[in-house]
Every structure is written in C-alpha cells, then in structure tokens.
Design brief:
The complex is a heterodimer of chains A (about 280) and B (about 525). Chain A is an all-alpha fold and about 280 residues long. Chain A has eleven helices and no strands. Chain B folds into two domains: about 30-180, Alpha-Beta Complex (Dipeptide-binding Protein, domain 1); about 275-490, Roll (Dipeptide-binding Protein, domain 3), CATH 3.10.105. Classes of the chains: A mainly alpha (about 280), B alpha+beta (about 525). Chain A: It is found in: Cell membrane.
C-alpha cells in the first residue's frame, strides 16, 4: 500500500506578494554586503587614523568616527555581528521553541500542562529587562548576548508549533502511520516535523529581526561587546555626536532599519503564504 | 517627582535653543541643578574619595581651612591659625556659634575626632596625615595639632582632601562603614542634605544657619544622577541641568560645550586630573618590568591625547603632573616603538603563540566611562600589533570595584584621578606601600619599593623646597623606571555652568566643592 504524504506546503506556492519580494531583496542586499565585507570594505574596521570625525567623502564614503576609523567598513563588519547575533539567537530560540512545542502538542496531558505553564512564565518575563540584568551580571560578550536573547525568545514558536501539532496529531495520515506500526519517535520526526517546518520559516525570520532589535537595544545601553561592534554599538557610540557628526548615527541606523524591515516583510509574507498553503493541503 | 520632570521637559521642549535655562530661572531663580554620573556609595568625605561621593558630600561638610582659586589657604571652620616656628605645632582658632545641621553646637571635639579617628584612619589620602603625632582640644574653640616632623603639604591636605569635619555625636562608637549617616550626611556646610532617590537625584536645602551670613545664595541644590554621557549632555543642552563638571563632563564634549552660548567653561588652575591605569604587577606576565615597559613602547599615547582628549590633554611623563612645581623635567618618555616592544616581550620569554598572540590583557573600566572605553579601543589596536590581545571589559561601578580592587582580577584597570595640588596628597597614595588596601584610589598595583617608601618619608620632613624637589625627582625616576601604573595623560578638570544665573561656581581648586556652592550667586544678584 502506498501512502501519499502531503509535502510541505511552502514549495508549491504561487508568486509572492510585492512586499515579500521587497523584504527578501532588502535582506539579500544586507546579507550580501556583510558577507562580502572583506572585499568591499575600504579599511580595517578597527584601524585607527588621525582623520577624526571626517564627514563622508571619497576616501571614507560614510565618514569616520571619533578614533578616525572608517565608518563604511565598520557598518559592513558591524552587520556581521548584528546578523550573526540575530541568526544564532533565533536558532537557539527556534530550536528550544520547536522542541517544547512538539513535545507539548504531541504528548499532551501532564507534559503539555507542565511545558505550557513554563512557557507562560517565560512569556510574562519583561524580556529586555531580564536581558539587561543578565548581561550586566555576566558581562558583555557575544556569547552571553546570543544565549540571553535566544533563551528569552522561544515562547511564541513553542505555542505556534504546539497548536499545529495538536491539529496534525488528529489527522488521518498520522493515524495511518501509527497503524502501520511506526514508532512515536518516527511519527514525530518523519511525519509531524516536516509538516510544521513551513511555519518555522516565518517564525524564524521574524525572530531574527526581533533578536537584532534586542541586541541593538542592549548595545545602545552600553552592554554590547566592544571587541565586536554591532550596529547598535555604533549607534550608541555615535549618539554623543548626533549634532556634530550626523553620519555616525544615520548610517548604522539605516542599516539596522533596512534589515529589520526586510526581515519583517519577509516573515509576514512567508507567514501569509504558509497560511494559504496550509488551507489547501 | 515624575510630574515635575515631565513639566520641566514640556516647558523646554518648545525652544531648547532659546536659552531655556533663563526661563527656568525666572520661575525658580534660587535653585541650582548639577549632575553626577552614578549613585554615590557614600556621602562621607572622610572615608571615600570617589568622585561621585566627593561631589555629593562636598556641599554638606566644612573643613578647618580651604584652598581658594589661586591655591591660597584661607579659613573655613577655623577663623585663624598659628604655626610654631619649628613647624611642628599648628593651633587652630575656631569660629564661634557654628551649629551642625541637626542643631547641636560644633566644638573642637568634633574636629579632634574627625581628624584623629576618621580621616587619619580611613581616608584614602590618609598618608598625607601621617606626620600628625597628637590632636588636642584644650578648649571648645581651639584645636592643636602636634607633628612628629614639619610637613610642607599639611595645610593643603587639611583643606581639601583629608580634612572634612564630621559630627562626633553621630559617629563616635559606630562602625564608620555602616553608619547610617553615610547616606544621610549631617555637616556644617552651606547645604543640608534632604533626600536621595537612587538613580534619580539628591536634593539639598539651604543651611539657614550657615556660618557665613547671607550665604549660600541658593535655596535649593539638586544633583541629578545620569549615568549615560549622551543623556547627561542632552539634559545640559536642554537646560534641565545648570552645571556639569569634573568627570561628569566627558572630554569628548569639551569642543561642543566651548561652542555653546551662555555657558561658562572653566578649567581648574591648580589641579590636574589624570587618566591612569593600574597595572597588576603581582600577576604574570605583568610582574616582569620588561613587559610593562613594552606596553609603554607599544601604546600610542599621543594618539590617545589627540583623539580622546582633543585640545585638552597634556603629556604625562612620570607619575607627577607637569604643572606641579615638583615635576621632574629631566625624565625621558618611553618612545613609541613597536619593534622595541616586540623585542622586550621576546626577551621576557613571551613568544607569539597561535594566531600571533602572546597573551591576553584584561582591561577593566566603568561601563559609563566613555574616555576609558575609547582609550581601551586604541590600546587594543596598538597592542594587537605586538601580539597582546586586549580583553575590553566594561563593568558597572559595583562590579568594577569588586573585581578590580577587592579581588584584584585585572591586568589593567583605569580611572581618572585628581592628582592634587601637591603630590603628597594626590600622587604618593599610588606608590607608598603603606597605602595598600582593597579599595580604589590607593596603591592598587600594588607597588612595594622600600627605597620609594623611604624617600617619601624623607621629603615629607624637608623644609627646604630645593632639597624636597631633589628627593621628589628621585622618586619620579624610580617610579618611571618600575612603571607600576600607566598614566595616559592628564588634564585640568573642566567645569561648565550656565552664565544666565550663576557666577563664581568654579573658582576653586577642586571644581567645585562646598565653597563654590557657598559663594556662587545667581546672576544679577
């Protein structure tokens, strides 16, 4: 007997809405810029020079900062830090969220109860405040920032996945798999996980945007890792010169805005497409 | 309190550039608002020398004497004084009718107790009081200090750094570190402490019974607490704050403040402040003097002066600031020479390992200290070139004190220090081995050199200025050879105040201290 499994919905979607395309383009632009930083950047982002607080010109397309460092290079490399923190903390958040969501939705009962109460506890924590306290106590480092942001941002994913799993659990193809002797682990990994994957695309994308925001917030409060200056860190450094060197806040701010808007448009688009796809399945 | 802040903001929001302060003054001409960077852990000048503590407690206390803008000593609680011809007996005649803020009368017993039990035992600058043999109070209006030997710098010390007089009736028999009046200070100064709301403000009211009639001119003094330098300067620009000074005024802001209209920017004529790091000389590899000298050859101090303190900083060669009469002009600076630094590090047996890195250097600084962070970023670049990886570690105040000064978990820790009008007061404390304690602003490297200790003792009893200078020259030579600290540069302490309402705020040495608040006046009065 051959059992036709529904394929993940995302891949058979019609053309994407314009806003999603814009989002993807923005993200692609930013990601490409930071990936190609070693090729594009005119200078080492940490190299000092006596050209202090120089406005944008041919030598320094985005000007220099208070230690004479090239801002264009700093923005490019700062993107690596911001995007890296965004990506890795979103991965942590999504992994934890998926684990908890799958377990709660699939096993139900007491496990579900326990996991959902825990999720609620995390959900009501004032996340940024907790992050500020933890980073102040443990010290500013990339790893601490990634861990704190990641471990505080899994609750939404967990809830979405749980709900989706609870629906899937009752589907006929799951019952069929169970009757044909598949173990619970096999059902979970082979039949349920692939079917929640499309939801993850949207939720991960939105989480990256959220994590980049959280990181810039921490950096803006002076809690960023000064060894690896992120966009938020550049903003914080620049704000002292907001009336005398506009470029120091404008360009990191633009980069940050483009990225967050990009990821949000992309995430929203993917979320809507997934909803359509889900209905069709 | 919140409502008050909002309404002030609202009023200023419309016309920030429109000399907002004058508007505020019209409504409330007798209130002056300053700013500090952090919650002061203590408001007790006798046991704490931290800048926030000093600034926050200065308006409350008095001393026997004080130093004026020109560096001359004048009376404060003491009306006059006599010094015996042999320079070993100081007799102070105190003012009549001075009362504490709680109404009790001030007597010579308070001075005797404050100098003998608090300042001599607990003040971070107490080394400067070492010559005192006995303190007597023969009658309620007289204090007699007998010295073991003459001491040239004693009056400077008593007037500025180690002479705050606290009420004996509130301190006797208590543990000074736990006395509740550390947070609720009672003094004889021009302003009475009213309230302290952490993270927000400290409020003071005029002392109606201040011993100088008609002073102070202000009914209310407020110190706002704003740790973020940008927010602090924005508040000053908007006119929410009337004065900003000392380390609360970031060096990077000086050029902008200079351009601001209606603002009086001053620099202390007598006192320099240094940006100086302790090197942890008990920790390998910094126990090796060659490694420490390599730092001097590798770090571009001129770049630090030009970029972090543009147009403000002076070069510092040796431990004594160049504006001091005791400065040793014969010292030569360590030349910027990365090749020499590399050679010294090789010689010290610290070869480059993986990735060209020889070792890590943990550089600790206050998270709100912008200049320290910029210095760290410069240093990280300079030292990377010779294979030293700088770990930039910004910490909040409490953690910094714990990590650096109590636990000594640092390789370099930086702070700005007032170097005092005399090196006995502001410099000796970093190098005399009798001043090693787990607190900040003392000998924290910690540096132990019996010869230096002996020379400090020798110069203290010298009455001949030339001989004293010769001994100080030698001290500077030795310290500059051993380099237990890293002086980046020094600069005159800056202060800025709105001219629209106050004059004379920054006319003294430690800009500004209690006398500034006592003698400052609203404009046009």
């Amino acid at each position: 007997m051959s059992l036709t499994l529904p394929r993940p919905a995302l891949w058979r979607l019609p053309s994407l809405p314009a806003s999603t395309v814009i989002g993807i383009a923005l993200v692609a632009f930013v990601v490409l810029g930071t990936l190609l930083a070693p090729l594009i950047a005119p200078a080492n982002p940490l190299a000092l020079s006596t050209d202090i607080l120089a406005p944008p010109d041919a030598a320094h397309p985005l000007g220099t900062d208070d230690l004479g460092r090239d801002l264009f290079s700093r923005v490019l490399y700062g993107g690596r830090v911001s995007l890296g923190i965004g990506l890795f903390s979103a991965l942590i958040g999504v992994t934890v969220g998926v684990g908890i969501g799958l377990a709660a939705g699939f096993f139900g009962g007491a496990i579900d109860e326990a996991l959902m109460r825990m999720t609620e506890v995390f959900q009501v924590l004032p996340k940024l405040l907790v992050a500020v306290v933890v980073v102040s106590l443990l010290g500013s480092s990339l790893l601490n920032e990634i861990l704190v942001i990641g471990l505080l941002s899994w609750t939404a994913t967990a809830r979405i996945i749980r709900t989706r799993v609870m629906v899937l659990r009752e589907e006929e193809f799951i019952a069929a798999a169970a009757m044909s002797g598949a173990s619970r682990t096999r059902i979970l990994l082979r039949h349920i996980l692939p079917n929640v994957a499309p939801y993850l695309m949207a939720s991960t994308t939105l989480q990256i945007a959220g994590a980049i925001m959280s990181e810039s917030f921490l950096s803006f409060l002076g809690l960023g890792d000064p060894t690896y200056p992120s966009w938020g860190f550049l903003l914080q450094q620049g704000q002292l010169y907001i009336d005398s060197a506009w470029w120091l806040t404008t360009f990191p701010g633009l980069a940050l805005a483009m990225t967050i808007v990009g990821f949000n448009l992309m995430g929203d688009g993917l979320g809507q497409s997934r909803a359509i796809g889900g209905a069709r399945r | 309190m919140v409502a008050n802040t909002v309404s002030r903001r609202g009023a200023f929001g419309l016309g920030a550039g429109l000399a907002a302060a004058s508007g505020a003054r019209a409504a409330d001409p007798k209130r002056i608002i300053g700013v500090i960077e952090e919650d002061p852990p203590f408001m007790n000048l006798a046991i704490s020398s931290g800048i926030s503590s000093s600034v926050a407690s200065a308006p409350v206390y008095s001393a026997l004497t004080r130093m004026d803008a020109k560096g001359d000593i004048t009376g404060d609680l003491a009306e006059r004084w006599d010094i015996s011809p042999d320079g070993k007996t100081y007799t102070f005649h105190l003012r009549e009718g001075v009362t504490w803020h709680d109404g009790r009368p001030f007597t010579s017993a308070d001075a005797q107790f404050s100098l003998g039990e608090l300042n001599s035992k607990l003040n971070p600058y107490r080394g400067a009081l070492k010559s005192i043999d006995s303190i007597d109070a023969p009658d309620p209006r007289t204090v007699v200090l007998k010295l073991k030997n003459p001491q040239a710098s004693l009056m400077v010390s008593l007037g500025n750094f180690c002479g705050a007089i606290l009420p004996k009736h509130l301190w006797e028999g208590t543990d000074p570190a736990r006395n509740p009046h550390n947070k609720n200070p009672i003094g004889t100064g021009p302003f009475k402490f009213v309230s302290f709301s952490p993270g927000d403000r400290i409020t003071y009211a005029k002392n109606e019974n201040y011993f100088i009639p008609g002073k102070p001119a202000f009914d209310e003094l407020i110190f706002r607490i704003i740790p973020d330098p940008a927010a602090r300067m924005a508040a000053f620009t908007r006119g929410e704050i009337d004065m900003v000074y000392s380390s609360a005024l970031p060096a990077t802001e000086i050029p902008r403040v200079r351009r601001m209209r209606g603002v009086d920017l001053r620099f202390s004529a007598v006192q320099a402040s240094s940006y100086q790091a302790y090197i942890n000389i008990r920790n390998a590899p910094f126990d090796d003097v060659r490694v420490r000298r390599a730092l001097f050859h590798a770090i571009d101090r001129k770049f630090v002066r030009d970029s972090v303190f543009p147009g403000l900083a002076q070069e510092m060669v040796g431990p004594v600031p160049p504006n001091s009469p005791l400065y040793n002009r014969a010292l030569t600076d360590y030349a910027l020479d990365p090749a020499r630094a590399n050679a010294l590090l090789d010689e010290a047996g610290k070869p480059r390992g993986a990735g060209g890195v020889r070792f890590d250097l943990r550089y600790l600084f206050g998270a709100a200290d912008l200049s320290a962070r910029k210095i760290g970023e410069v240093m990280a670049q300079n030292l990377a070139a010779v294979g030293i990886r700088v770990v930039l570690t910004p910490l909040d105040r409490g953690t910094l004190i714990q990590r650096a000064y109590v636990a000594r978990e640092f390789d370099m820790v930086i702070t700005s220090f007032a170097l005092g009008p005399d090196p006995d007061v502001g410099v000796e404390r970093f190098y005399n081995s009798n001043n090693i304690f787990p607190v900040q602003a003392v000998n924290c490297s910690p540096y132990v050199n019996p010869e230096v200790d002996r020379l400090f003792d020798e110069q203290r009893v010298q009455t001949d200025p030339a001989r004293r200078k010769a001994i100080y020259d030698r001290i500077q030579e030795i310290v500059w050879r051993d380099v237990p600290t890293f002086p980046f540069c020094c600069y005159s302490l800056p202060g800025a105040v709105r001219t629209s309402f106050a004059t004379g705020v920054f006319d003294t040495v430690d800009a500004p201290s209690r006398e500034d608040f006592a003698f400052a006046a609203p404009a046009g009065r």
